[in-house]
Structure formats: structure tokens, C-alpha cells
Amino acid sequence: MLPAHARLRRREDFTRVLRSGNRAGRSTLVVHATLGGASNDAGPTENSVRAGFVVSKAVGNAVIRHRVARQLRHLVRDRLSQLPPGSTVVVRALPAAADQTSETLGRDLDGAFRRILKARR
């Protein structure tokens, strides 16, 4: 589970990242990220990395969507330290994510993060 300060919840935050962030797609997911930007929150969390998830009905029924979201939350939690402070990430699951293992999702997530970090340089 992601800590509360590391989760995106507001629609405006999702929209900002999806429209202005860098994007890296893989076969099971697409990662949108704004790297090192200032957060709208005040206080000790303003430099924390925040993440949000989009798992649409195209991925599957409610049971499958929640399983995919849990897998992605767990995988992203372990990788937040790879991103610069103040980054915001949105992970969008594609329909192919429904029947994939956590290992496959993790490889796709790592590849997407590498591509986004490489584009920053």
C-alpha cells in the first residue's frame, strides 16, 4: 500500500500529469510522469513522489481491475525512490495487464521508468 502522502487523488492532478507529463508505453501499461516538479501541497510532503493509477473497465471486471490496481500499487511503491523528489506519476493499465504476472508488470514498469528518466537528460 502506498502511504497517503504518496497517492494522487484529485482529478486536477491526474489531468495535469496526463496532459503535460512525459509518456512511456509498454505492452501492459502506460506511464505518464512529471519529473521533479513542485507539488501543490504544503509542508513536509512537497518533495515526495506521488503516484496515481487508472484501471479502466476495458481491463476487465471489478475483480480483475482491483487485482491489477493492487499489483501496480505494490510495484510502484517499491520503485518510487528511483524518481526525483517532487515527481508525479500516473500509471494507466492497458487491457493486456489483466492476465499478466507481477513479474511481467514489474518489467514493463521498469522499462517505462527508464525511458522517462532517459528523456529527462
Question: What does this molecule look like?
Answer:
Keywords: Endonuclease, Hydrolase, Nuclease, RNA-binding, tRNA processing. It holds the Pfam family Ribonuclease_P. GO terms for molecular function: 3'-tRNA processing endoribonuclease activity; ribonuclease P activity; tRNA binding. InterPro entries: Ribosomal_Su5_D2-typ_SF (IPR020568), Ribsml_uS5_D2-typ_fold_subgr (IPR014721), RNase_P (IPR000100), RNase_P_CS (IPR020539). This protein is an alpha+beta fold and 121 residues long. The protein is built from 3 helices and 4 strands; from the N terminus they run αβββαβα. It has a single domain, classed as Ribosomal Protein S5, domain 2. A 4-stranded mixed sheet has the order 1-2-4-3. Strand 3, helix 2 and strand 4 form a beta-alpha-beta unit. Helix 2 crosses helix 3. The protein starts with 10 loop residues before the first helix and ends with a helix.
